Structure formats: C-alpha cells, structure tokens
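Please decode residue identities from the backbone states below.
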C-alpha cells in the first residue's frame, strides 16, 4: 500500500547546519515524474514556511546533457514552462556528456553524473544554494544496493544512498514508486517520460525491470532492502568509531600496516585513504584484495587502481596517491632558467655562495657536456657515484630511499643515458664542484603551480 508523501519543515531543516534567516534549496529537476513530485512537495513546504525562521526558498536546476537530441531539449522546455507556471526561479545548463565521456573514458551514465555534480557543487560554492535536493526514492535505493552487490561491495555499500550527505539531500528516499505515482495522481501533475528509461542496455534500467518482476512475488522487497541498509548503517557507524587514523600529507595518504589488524579494518582504511584523495567511486572488492596482498609485499611494489589511484608499499606503510602524468617525454636543452612548469630553477652563483648540506644542489657548469638536456628519467639511465663506480639510476634512487611513486616526477640533467644530476636528490661525481671550478650553477626545486 502506497504511503502518503508528507515532507516536514523540521526534517529539511535538520539537513543543514547553516545559521541564517533563509535556507536556499536547489531542486534538481529533469522533468520526469520523480523530480516533478519533489519540486511540488518542496514548493508547498516553502509556502508553508513563510512564518518560520529560517524561511525555505527554492529554485530549480535543470541540466540538459546533450544525449537525447530534440527529446532532451523538449524536456528542458517543459521544465522551463513548469517553473514559470509555479513561479519558481530556474537555473538551466547545457553540457556535452557524450564528448566528455569519450574524452575521459567514462560511460554516458558516469559522464552525466560527473557533469551534473560539478554544476551542483558550483551553485553551492557560489552561494546560490545551501542545499541541493535530489529526487531519489526507495525503489532507486533498491537499484543502488543491488548494483553494488552485483559489482562486489562491503558493508558500506549496503547502506546505499543517504537522506542527507553534506549539502545533498534526498527527501523522498523513504517513499516507494507506488507512493510517487499516487502523489502524481492525487495532485494532477504533468511530467515527461525519458525514452531511454526503457533501454535495458543501461544497467539501472535493466535492474529496474527485474525488480518490478521481483515485487510481484515479494511486494515488500523495497522495505526489506531498507531494513538491510539501516542495519548496515549501524554496523558501519561502529566500525568508523573504532577506526585508526590515517595520515594525509602533501597529497599522499598513508596507512600503517600495523593498523590493518583485520580484513574489515584494512578495507575501511583503504577506502578512507582513497576518499582523502577524492576517489570515492568504483572502489570494488577486487581492488581491496589487490591492496591487501600489497601489505605483505616488499617495499617499492605498487598497484594502479581506478581513477588514477596508485598504491605503493613504503616500509611499514601503504602510500596512496593519484598518479600524475610523468615528465619522461619532456626534453629541454640544459641552460640557465626558471622552469616553473617543472618546479625547478637553474641559476649561476658565485663559488663563495656555495653552501653544501642544504636543499640546493651545486654543479660545475663547465663539466656538463654540450648537448646535455633537462628531462625525466628513462630506462637505461645511469650515474657515477661519489667515491667511484657507476650505478643504474633506479638502483641509485633506491639507495637514496626515493619512493617509487615520486620517481616519475623527477627531473635530471643528462647526455644520452648518462645522468649528471637529479634535481632535489644528488649530483654525479662527474659534475662535482672542486678547487678548479670557475662557473657554478645552483639547482633548486620547488612546488610548481
């Protein structure tokens, strides 16, 4: 039996920590039945809150993704007319989800979601909205939980979507499809149908049709999943309260291997380490297994995971970073200059200014041969050590305890495969400053902007 949809002022207010006289809510509206119902509910609630503080004010946000051609434009026109009729301010946006997906290797679903949330985040950052209301309901929650189960998830994934998550709220999350349909009928609401909802090539659409069949035999399926999600949330809260702290420093998050006392705790630490770097999507069970294997690997081993996330074994820690493009293809004739894009500087100094033991390296400029370049390290590079003998640059960096995750970003001075200096690390004995040196260059490193 359908539940009557009744949103309360207090339930919306509890989602915000803002202390102000007006709470501005942006409602994501596609024109479909769910978002139209949400907009209508919040419009009525805003009208009833005129004598309350903070007063609720709403606006609509419509994003046209450029996926469905004229049909998509028709839906946006419907939203525009609806907002005019209901006297609701509207923000409209057009994005190219197809091009974005192709350029970044995303599915259309992923691309659309990323672009939508970029817009929502900008509205919040610009102060145009305090909260963004999304029209997800209980049947959407069932789809989300089942999708995560099929991909491979842990306790956290079983929680599904939250009613409130930061600046995002889902006021309809306790109401099922039947409740939405009953509200549409009782209030005589018009909406548009997205033809792609019938395309079972999309995973969510396929599951939606299968769930409809399951509900014929198990009519309380949605409520059962809701109870499962609530139990998972309780377990998750306990785990979170007993979780060791991770360290985040200069774009790297660290997990101590000694903190991974059980698979359950280790998996959560892995998730927290990835989340600290902004990677919260597509972390699946197979990824956890790979990282758990790395706990017992030798120092220097690494894994590449989803969204550029890279994990390194460094002593008694796992170091997580989002991998940047390496500079190995970059090549610049060696000369004086401020190479800000590379985070390095080469400049002449007086010999009397040389201060060994500081972060700056010094070389005898006359010992650098013609044709030398500044570039990234490559396979086959070697360096002559102080005290005699040569070593592969990789082994040299291992001796210097330079983590593997940093080596792709190092810049060197080299002629062919012979390295004369590694910025921020050390120089070759071939380029050392001695009593006969006349021209000294200082090699400095700094964080590029």
């Amino acid at each position: 039996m359908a539940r009557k949809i009744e949103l309360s002022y207090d339930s919306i207010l509890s989602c915000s920590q803002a202390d102000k006289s007006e709470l501005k809510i942006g409602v994501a509206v596609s024109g479909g039945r769910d978002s139209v119902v949400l907009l209508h509910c919040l419009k009525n609630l805003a009208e009833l809150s005129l004598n309350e503080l903070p007063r609720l004010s709403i606006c609509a946000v419509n994003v046209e993704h450029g996926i469905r051609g004229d049909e998509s434009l028709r839906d946006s026109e419907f939203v525009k007319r609806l907002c005019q009729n209901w006297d609701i301010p509207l923000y409209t946006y057009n994005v190219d989800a197809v091009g974005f997906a192709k350029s970044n290797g995303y599915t259309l679903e992923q691309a659309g979601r990323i672009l939508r949330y970029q817009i929502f985040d900008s509205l919040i950052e610009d102060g145009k909205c305090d909260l963004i209301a999304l029209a997800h309901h209980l049947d959407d929650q069932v789809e989300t939980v089942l999708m995560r189960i099929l991909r491979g998830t842990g306790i956290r994934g079983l929680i599904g979507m939250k009613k409130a998550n930061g600046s995002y709220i889902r006021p309809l999350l306790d109401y099922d499809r039947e409740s939405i349909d009953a509200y549409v009928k009782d209030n005589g609401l018009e909406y548009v149908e997205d033809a792609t909802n019938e395309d079972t090539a999309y995973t969510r659409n396929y599951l939606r049709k299968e769930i409809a069949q399951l509900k014929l035999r198990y009519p309380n399926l949605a409520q059962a999943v809701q109870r499962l999600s609530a139990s998972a949330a309780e377990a998750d809260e306990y785990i979170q309260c007993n979780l060791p702290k991770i360290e985040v420093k200069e774009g790297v998050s660290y997990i101590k291997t000694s903190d991974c006392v059980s698979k359950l705790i280790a998996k959560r630490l892995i998730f927290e380490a990835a989340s600290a770097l902004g990677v919260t999507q597509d972390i699946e069970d197979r990824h956890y297994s790979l990282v758990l294997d790395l706990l017992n690997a030798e120092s220097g081993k690494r894994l590449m995971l989803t969204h550029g996330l890279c994990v390194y074994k460094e002593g008694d820690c796992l170091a997580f970073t989002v991998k940047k493009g390496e500079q190995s293809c970059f090549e610049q004739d060696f000369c004086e200059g401020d190479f800000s894009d590379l985070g390095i500087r080469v400049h002449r100094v007086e010999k009397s200014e040389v201060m060994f033991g500081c972060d700056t390296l010094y070389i005898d400029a006359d010992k650098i041969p013609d044709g030398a370049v500044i570039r990234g390290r490559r396979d086959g590079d070697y360096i002559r050590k102080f005290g005699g003998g040569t070593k592969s640059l990789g082994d040299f960096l291992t001796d210097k305890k330079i983590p593997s995750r940093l080596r792709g970003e190092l810049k060197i001075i080299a002629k062919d495969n012979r390295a004369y200096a590694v910025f921020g690390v050390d120089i070759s004995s071939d380029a050392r400053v001695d009593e006969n040196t006349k021209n000294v260059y200082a090699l400095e490193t700094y964080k590029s902007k």
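Observation: The chain has 14 helices and 22 strands.
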